[in-house]
Design a protein that fits this description.
This protein is mainly alpha-helical. The chain contains 4 helices and no strands. The chain starts with 11 loop residues before the first helix and ends with a helix. InterPro entries: SecE_bac (IPR005807), SecE_sf (IPR038379), Translocase_SecE/Sec61-g (IPR001901).
């Protein structure tokens, strides 16, 4: 028995639109180079037109609409973030620097200890 709540999606239309979008962008880039003898504003217009048309077609496809929805939802979530104050950011930065200095001193002393053990005690070098 088929589940009436299952929705089938035909993704070939979205793929065709994305393919068309890529072709429009490629056509804009090719137009930019084919029009090498034309003024630069004509070449730039061909490139921009290809990019704009490609973006418009891509954003009207199903994957493009899903991307726009994802971007809107991401922006909505970003607005919920509680950012630290300037004082808190400065304090955390100071803690990170202090930790880095302490770790550097620890690693330097461990390196010197291992060097002393290997060269002085094990190998007998001075």
């Amino acid at each position: 028995m088929a589940n009436p709540n299952v929705e089938t999606v035909n993704a070939s239309g979205g793929k065709l639109q994305l393919g068309l979008a890529v072709l429009l962008v490629v056509a804009g880039v090719i137009g930019f180079y084919v029009l090498a003898q034309q003024p630069s504003y004509v070449r730039a217009a061909a490139l921009i037109a290809g990019l704009a048309l490609g973006a418009a077609v891509a954003l009207t496809s199903l994957p493009g609409k899903e991307f726009i929805g994802f971007a809107k939802e991401s922006y909505r979530e970003l607005r919920k973030v509680v950012w630290p104050t300037r004082k808190e950011a400065g304090q955390m930065t100071g803690l990170v620097f202090a930790f880095v200095v302490i770790m550097a001193l620890f690693l330097w002393s461990a390196d010197k200890l291992i060097e002393w053990v290997i060269f002085s005690l094990v190998l007998g070098w001075k």
